[in-house]
Amino acid sequence: MLFRQERRSAKWWTIGFFFLITLTLIPVKHRVAHAVEGFANAETINIGSSVEGQAIQAFRLGNGHRSVVLIGAIHGNEKNSAVLTRDLGNYFAANLNLLPPDTSLYLIPILNLDGFRAGTRYNAHGVDLNRNWPSHDWQSNTDDGTGLKVGAGGSAPFSEPETAALAAWLLKLRDQANGKLRVLFYHAAYPPAGLVLSGSVGETVTRPIAAILGYKMAGEEGWTAYPVTGMAIQWCADQAIGCFEIELPNRANLAEEKTKLHAMAVLSVLLWEQMHPDQKCFLETGFCIAGRIRQFWQQNGGLAVFGLPISLQREEKVNGIPQQVQWFERNRLELHPGDLVMLGRLGEEYLQRQGRDWWLFPRATPTNNSTCRFFAESQHSICGEMLAAWRSKGLRIDAQRDSKNFSEAENLALLGLPLSEAQNETLSNGQTYTVQWFERARLELHPATAQSPAAVQLGLLGTEMQPK
Q1: CATH topology for 15-281?
Q2: pTM for this prediction
Q3: To 5 degrees, how large is the angle CA 177–CA 183–CA 185?
């Protein structure tokens, strides 16, 4: 049955690909049957028992003090919520490196074990577990959208072992996390597009999640189609626990691409706490880009030029000056006063870190060779394939130019002057390439393989240099 919040609280390519391919190989019926099994790399926690004696289990990934909890199937017949919670657990268990070090992620795929096994909304006592919480409006008789259900709220708040056990466990987590606890209840269904209800976390959290999922946000009045009482998220508000709900669009198991969006929302917003309203997030790393940095990234080559974001936007000292920066696989974007975005001088900084003075590198001499370009400023030349690659990349600093090609000023703005000649070096990955150093980059000539021809690529200097 449809389940909604009566009102908001006034308080308030590659990693994901493996996961998605794995899902396609698991038949839906087996995904349901295995929803209660544990996860690799997870700690199993018994938090209580159902009416019929089934163990209610939470699975913990990570060991930080800040806690995020995902709960499925508080209504036993909403089986796709259990499957989704299970699939998210499998993903994060396989990609523990994406979790913030200060965070623990807990997953309870099925709260209503007896109802899940029987295929009913209610537990073995005939009680709706999301009407059994001691909120200000708890009632024994409840409505599930089909009419009045006598006794479905339980004989008293927390009359049911499932809700009493979950509440006690959440209170313990709240105290251990010093209040840094967020709880997401998955429900079904809200056709046609799904719904996000802010509960006690507030729209600052739920609006970015709704934007990622493409779900509707519940309005100020919440759900008013029929009366709902004694709800978990109402109790959470009274206990200073940040709880909210996501209603899936229907009762069907989610397609792989939709599951991917839920993983991205949990990872980016709940785990990494990125909540800018216009952000673009990446499941591969868990980080988002927003505001002026997102605009600059998109306007100047995006993934091909800068790579994925590999950090939050944060304050760091650049040349001794506090600066808002964000690290990417191939560079560092710096936000300067006046919304001016500048690139880090990572090529020069990397050589300094290695104790290598580029001014001592062997110099070039001017030449009339048309395949080379000599720069008197640094006394180095760019030639052949390196020159073609250098000229193919740049920042669009002249908005009036209508050209697919970059000017030399735009090449210099992106990569900078050459600091070396092309030379063979063994890089941090243990591979030896022909490379050439520039003020802001390192170009690498990767040899041909069975999968790809020889090509000049931008080095992953951001990945190698980002402060840990």
Answers
A1: Aminopeptidase (3.40.630)
A2: 0.86
A3: 165
